């Protein structure tokens, strides 16, 4: 068992769940931290490696999700700003005519 790699499917599922429910990321991280301490106490190094892999992937996924969310907000803000500029120009030309 010591040579087995972490279960990739479970790690991917956890990351997908976290991406769909970003509010739960702190709770998931806390659970992983507690699990790591528990496994350290009983010296289950393999489980610590699995927990570390999950935590690392979760952090990377959370960062990627935050970047995507920030990009979407920035694009939305830019779009709204361009709409406001277009409205001001249209009003300016209506008043002048």
From TrEMBL:
<dbReference type="InterPro" id="IPR055296">
    <property type="entry name" value="SRL2-like"/>
</dbReference>
<protein>
    <submittedName>
        <fullName>Uncharacterized protein</fullName>
    </submittedName>
</protein>
């Amino acid at each position: 068992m010591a040579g087995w790699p972490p279960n990739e499917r479970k790690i991917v599922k956890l990351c997908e769940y976290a991406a769909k429910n970003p509010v739960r990321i702190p709770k998931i991280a806390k659970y992983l931290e507690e699990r790591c301490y528990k496994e350290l106490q009983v010296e289950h190094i393999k489980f610590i490696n699995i927990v570390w892999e999950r935590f690392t992937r979760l952090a990377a996924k959370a960062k990627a999700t935050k970047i995507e969310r920030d990009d979407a907000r920035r694009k939305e803000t830019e779009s709204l700003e361009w709409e406001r500029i277009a409205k001001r120009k249209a009003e300016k030309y209506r008043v002048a005519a």
